[in-house]
Amino acid sequence: MEQNWFFPPHKGIRLGDLANQIGTELSDGAVADRAIHSVAPVYRAKPGDICYMLSRKYRAELETCQASAIICDKTIAPLVPPHIPILLTGRPHTAFALAGTLLHEVAMRPSRNTSLVGVSPAAFVDPSARLEEGVEVEPMAVIGAGAEIGSGTRIAAGAVIGPGVRIGRDCTIAAGVSVLCALVGNNVIIHPGARIGQDGFGYAPGPKGGMIKIVQVGRVIIQDHVEIGANTTIDRGTMDDTVIGEGTKIDNLVQVGHNVRIGRYCGIVSQVGIAGSTRIGDGVMIGGGSGVNGHITVGDGVQIAAMSGVASDVPAGERYGGIPARPMRDFLRDVAEMALRASDRQKKKGGTNE
């Protein structure tokens, strides 16, 4: 791959220092002064790069690897060529993630769109809004009446922060985002095009067969260290609040309905839809393309497989999959039975043709 000017290499971190900071053990102390500048995949890593390897099935990629070091566990270490130092750890994926934050800090959140620092004269900030020192507001952004924004937060180009919204410190609100009727904590990242705090979807039957809109007067509360992906929508509550718990990470193109409460440290993958008034516990993982019914409870630590349809409550700690979602062992058994039946039908069809 040609040089990437969007994310230029780091000026250099000593390999020994990097090993200590990410909690790994360097196999060869003689190379502790080697400079590490960037991350790269194993197959094309070159001097100055660091890479990681999780599985033996990728060992062929080591044939072309020229990395200055590779992060791996003790099961992979014997496969690594002797010219490549090893950073040994029981958690190579985590260690590599930490290395990336050190080497490419600028890539950790949406970057500035202009070189201007401070409040752009091309932005509109209502006179009644309160911005702490160190807030950045890029051109064409709008800060509504009575909004409050904490120090270190950046509001990117074209973003709209509605009246009365509160945003904490050290947040990044990317280009084209709208945040309405919301309270946002500290160190929150909201990626481009996300919509926070618009109407929830609520209607009652009308007298002549139509639908009457139900008023939506709740809020969205986003706790600290949440990350929300591009073009995700989070509806405000009807009368209660929609809540996103601390440390939760939400991918692109996710729909969170009104009054949903998502716990702490959850992971919700792209194209998930969560219907209104659902309660999701702490540490829940929901695979891409899944749908979660409204007015149900998903317990702490639950894992939902991709493309599942969750129709009813899921007990804490369970792994569910399928449509309708059911315990993973039942889902896999059903899949195996269907595959066997399909195979039997194909064999019978072939026998008839003979």
TrEMBL record:
Metabolic or biological pathway: Bacterial outer membrane biogenesis; LPS lipid A biosynthesis
Residue span(s) of domain UDP-3-O-[3-hydroxymyristoyl] glucosamine N-acyltransferase non-repeat region: 33-100
EC number(s) recorded for this UniProt protein: 2.3.1.191
Pfam families referenced in this protein's UniProt entry, alphabetically: Hexapep (PF00132), LpxD (PF04613)
Recorded superkingdom: Bacteria
UniProt cross-references to PROSITE patterns, sorted A to Z: HEXAPEP_TRANSFERASES
GO BP annotations listed: lipid A biosynthetic process
Catalytic reactions of this protein: a UDP-3-O-[(3R)-3-hydroxyacyl]-alpha-D-glucosamine + a (3R)-hydroxyacyl-[ACP] = a UDP-2-N,3-O-bis[(3R)-3-hydroxyacyl]-alpha-D-glucosamine + holo-[ACP] + H(+)
Keywords associated with the record: Acyltransferase, Lipid A biosynthesis, Lipid biosynthesis, Lipid metabolism, Repeat, Transferase
GO MF annotation, one: N-acyltransferase activity
Database matches in InterPro entries: Hexapep (IPR001451), Hexapep_transf_CS (IPR018357), LpxD (IPR007691), Trimer_LpxA-like_sf (IPR011004), UDP_GlcNAc_AcTrfase_non-rep (IPR020573)
UniProt-listed PANTHER family: UDP-3-O-ACYLGLUCOSAMINE N-ACYLTRANSFERASE, UDP-3-O-ACYLGLUCOSAMINE N-ACYLTRANSFERASE 1, MITOCHONDRIAL-RELATED
Function noted in UniProt: Catalyzes the N-acylation of UDP-3-O-acylglucosamine using 3-hydroxyacyl-ACP as the acyl donor. Is involved in the biosynthesis of lipid A, a phosphorylated glycolipid that anchors the lipopolysaccharide to the outer membrane of the cell.
Self-association and partners: Homotrimer.
NCBIfam families from the UniProt entry: lipid_A_lpxD (TIGR01853), PRK00892.1 (NF002060)
Membership in a protein family: Belongs to the transferase hexapeptide repeat family. LpxD subfamily.
The protein's name in its UniProt record: UDP-3-O-acylglucosamine N-acyltransferase
Source organism phylogeny: Bacteria, Pseudomonadati, Pseudomonadota, Alphaproteobacteria, Hyphomicrobiales
Gene that encodes the chain: lpxD
